Amino acid sequence: MALQIKKVAIITKIKNALANDAARHVAKFLDQKRIQIFSIEPLDINTVSLVEPAELINTDLDLVFAIGGDGTTLRAFRTIRKSTPVFSLNIGGTRGILAEANTKPIEQQLHDIFNGNYFYDKRLRLQAHIDGEMIGAALNDIVITRTNLTKTPTITINLFDYPVSQKMDGVIVSSPTGSTGHALSLGGPIIHESMNCVLILPIAPVNKTPALILELKDIEIRSTDSSKIIIDGQQVFDSTPENNITISKYPYDGVFLRIGKRGIRQLEKLGF
Q: Long-range pairs for 180-189 at CB < 8 Å and ≥24 separation?
């Protein structure tokens, strides 16, 4: 059964001509179907409402088009409510690991969506709290890293009520989706995106400390020095030694709308 689409948002890579051209093409197609369209970039179409990203958080949408690279897709998930599906097109981006793995023309992909030829690809998301206050949700990862580059802090990670303390520069807590991001560049494993687990990867530990793949339960982290908390590489928060950082499962999955084949998308996108 085809998705009933009445309200759509288009989120594009900022100031990118290729992404904006593709967005206009998508908007014209949707406009012909009398769908209400919101965009964060001007598309020069009278029926498209120009909005700030923050306004979309309080808007009930049926579908979001993310047109750009992985950064655009991550930004799209940060600006939508609950589990609104996202259709990601890698246009104007680089690798586009999160994007739809499809070589069909855009218009043909749009016809597939409106004819019901798609499936949902659900992804686990993480959330971070500082002293009980939620600061943000991540599709990829949450990185905690030192701010003082001349001193290595001791970071304590409480796992299943068992604290592990080591001197290290920081720690990456990654979802399976994020295992092909920052964690992979530090030698972490690739985890199939459908798994319900979390990857904990120490950054430059003084004593060799392995990466851990664990069932996702609340993870408490403290550092003996001030830290930066970086969510999906886009949001940055400050933390002090007095703060307790908790990372847990976000209550709403990230949902991709896909029309391409199923399989191990991450490996395919990385060229394996």
A: 180/97, 180/266, 180/269, 180/270, 181/70, 181/97, 181/140, 181/141, 181/233, 182/140, 182/141, 182/143, 182/233, 183/141, 183/211, 187/211, 189/213
Question: Which H or E run includes 66?
Answer: strand 63-68
Which H or E run includes 36? strand 36-39
CATH architecture of residue range(s) 7-123+253-269: 3-Layer(aba) Sandwich (3.40)
Tell me which of 3.40.50.720, 2.60.200.30, 3.30.450.20, 3.10.105.10 is the CATH number of domain 126-249: 2.60.200.30
Tokens of 112: 């597939």
Average pLDDT for consecutive 10-residue bins of the chain (272 residues)?
A: 85 90 94 94 90 88 94 93 91 77 81 92 96 96 96 94 94 96 92 93 93 93 97 97 97 91 64 60
**CA distance between the termini of the chain:** 34
Q: Is the separation of the CB atoms in 200 and 171 below 8 Å?
A: yes
Which residues lie below 8 Å from residue 122, measured CB to CB, with a gap of 6+?
Answer: 83, 194, 253, 254, 255, 256
Q: Tell me the Ramachandran region of residue 24: left when phi exceeds 0, alpha when psi lies from -120 to 50, beta otherwise.
A: alpha
pLDDT at 270: 67
CA angle 251, 181, 152 (to 5 degrees): 95
For the question of residue 70 being annotated catalytic, the response is yes
Cα–Cα distance measured from residue 236 to residue 221, given in angstroms and rounded to the nearest whole number? 16
Report the distance separating Cα 159 and Cα 203, nearest Å.
Answer: 17
Q: Which of 21, 70, 131, 232 is catalytic?
A: 70
Phi then psi for residue 195, to 5 deg, are -75, 150
